[in-house]
């Protein structure tokens, strides 16, 4: 259903911190023109924890409207509140998203049995295809491969975005979940190796600012042109690294504004705009990736 370079879409903001609909429309057009495989809107890169439910759903609705069937849209529907995750999933199913991206409950730190109960409740409440999202460094909760294997037996659960930073997880997930279960890297710097080991693609932060490059990289990998894919991956490595010089999505929003893809780099509090010293680091990475000129 999904493969290649999927963007974990930022949510552009105005100078006052409101959602910038004009920039959002430009981003959707940019990704369609650049060959991005799908758009994942309102994940954690989209600052979902700081948007109201109404804003959250409106962003997904607008992305669907702007995409107009030209690119699949995945809607972030995760929450640390199981009832809220159900409500988001049910609403997004009626809106017409292709799948939901459901992060593990953050802060609560549920057990593995609690994770099974959480996702089971969601899939019992609606039929929306679900991509699990494991990012223990941000949630304090690690969805283990054996647990993913149990969840893979639930019909609506179709894959996982794995951002534990451990490449061994690819083999473990394939063993536990089967070959038909979709595996996406959540770490851009590991994504090519992730695919070499049997993954299906990446749900990418870097694709926000280097959409065509990431799409070309993963098309090359899927066609077996590992030489081209490796060269492109190495060329983007400084950018992969510098886009995490501060909390995501602070650096990537600044990079998108630097490229003229959005109007401002403003995140929403409690996040602050990128500091001047880090701006120079990200700018140098953009120059090395030939995404902007020097001077």
TrEMBL record:
<keyword id="KW-0704">Schiff base</keyword>
<feature type="binding site">
    <location>
        <position position="203"/>
    </location>
    <ligand>
        <name>pyruvate</name>
    </ligand>
</feature>
<keyword id="KW-0457">Lysine biosynthesis</keyword>
<feature type="active site" description="Schiff-base intermediate with substrate">
    <location>
        <position position="161"/>
    </location>
</feature>
<dbReference type="InterPro" id="IPR002220">
    <property type="entry name" value="DapA-like"/>
</dbReference>
<feature type="site" description="Part of a proton relay during catalysis">
    <location>
        <position position="44"/>
    </location>
</feature>
<keyword id="KW-0220">Diaminopimelate biosynthesis</keyword>
<feature type="active site" description="Proton donor/acceptor">
    <location>
        <position position="133"/>
    </location>
</feature>
<comment type="pathway">
    <text>Amino-acid biosynthesis; L-lysine biosynthesis via DAP pathway; (S)-tetrahydrodipicolinate from L-aspartate: step 3/4.</text>
</comment>
<feature type="site" description="Part of a proton relay during catalysis">
    <location>
        <position position="107"/>
    </location>
</feature>
<keyword id="KW-0456">Lyase</keyword>
<dbReference type="InterPro" id="IPR013785">
    <property type="entry name" value="Aldolase_TIM"/>
</dbReference>
<comment type="function">
    <text>Catalyzes the condensation of (S)-aspartate-beta-semialdehyde [(S)-ASA] and pyruvate to 4-hydroxy-tetrahydrodipicolinate (HTPA).</text>
</comment>
<comment type="subunit">
    <text>Homotetramer; dimer of dimers.</text>
</comment>
<comment type="similarity">
    <text>Belongs to the DapA family.</text>
</comment>
<feature type="binding site">
    <location>
        <position position="45"/>
    </location>
    <ligand>
        <name>pyruvate</name>
    </ligand>
</feature>
<dbReference type="InterPro" id="IPR005263">
    <property type="entry name" value="DapA"/>
</dbReference>
<dbReference type="Pfam" id="PF00701">
    <property type="entry name" value="DHDPS"/>
</dbReference>
<dbReference type="InterPro" id="IPR020625">
    <property type="entry name" value="Schiff_base-form_aldolases_AS"/>
</dbReference>
<keyword id="KW-0028">Amino-acid biosynthesis</keyword>
<protein>
    <recommendedName>
        <fullName>4-hydroxy-tetrahydrodipicolinate synthase</fullName>
        <ecNumber>4.3.3.7</ecNumber>
    </recommendedName>
</protein>
<keyword id="KW-0963">Cytoplasm</keyword>
